[in-house]
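Memo to structure team: turn this sequence into structure tokens by end of day. - J.P.
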Amino acid sequence: MRAIITGINGFVGGHLADHLLSDSSWSVWGIARQSTLALAHLRERVSLVIADLEHPSELDDVLRHAQPDVIFHLAAQSNVPRSFADPQQTLQTNINGQINLFQSVLRLKQNPLIVIAGSQEIYGQVRPEDLPIDEATPLRPVNPYAVSKATQDLLAFQFHISHHLRTIRLRPFNHIGPRQSDAFVAAAFAAQVAKIERGEQEPVMRVGNLAAERDFTDVRDMVRAYVLAATHGQVGTAYNIGSERTVSIRWILDTLLGLSACEIQVETDPARMRPADVPRVVSNCSLFRDHTGWRPQIPLEQTLRDILDDWRAT
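Reply from structure team:
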């Protein structure tokens, strides 16, 4: 099986490449905008192609050469605060890149399975009666990133119906793990703990909204789900993927603080607050579980320990 990962230099892309390459039945191609792989250990094992999804001719060249069986479409602007700061760039990057990918597949008359990495953010302003969120829950996105991912989801369905593209839409809930940018909450906390332990930051943790409750999964379990979607999922289907339990952001913070020997003060930072937020999010993943047998395996406490150790080694 020949797989292309768009956005292979991203957080999830690197973990997905690791997982695919642990199975000798996969060969992996990666699309990136830069000429080197972010992860040194992948450089001899991945066929890296430099291309910009906003340039259709570059995509045509990649697909013509690679002849993929599966495309894992991960490339995106995925930071919510950045999407508020520059909504136009987020919408253009995420929507146009996917449309160009679809049209390139159609021009070349290829027939790969296309796995779309969406987001639970598309559900947006969920009401208590909506919980746990299943795939029939209405989409009420409350930030520009969520709007872009909802559009990607709908386009994947539309191109499946109108052009018979073999798309599967994934709606992953929050996923965290080693190598994640500190633009995301667990990594942001862990990075600050590591800096405080090294004496690079005063012993004060700056935080946003700690009351929000989220459904967290280890990224290594998440990429295992992506591959199961490609091998056992039903074409045309949308799947939630998550742990089906919630923890508060405060629990994440307290767990990381408990792993440090330092005394750390916590202060609220208004700059870290979102203009719009959702109090509680939890997934119903029964459809995906029924189709693939997937369940998360890595305890969240272990995930947080691994994230902190990763930042300590940085």
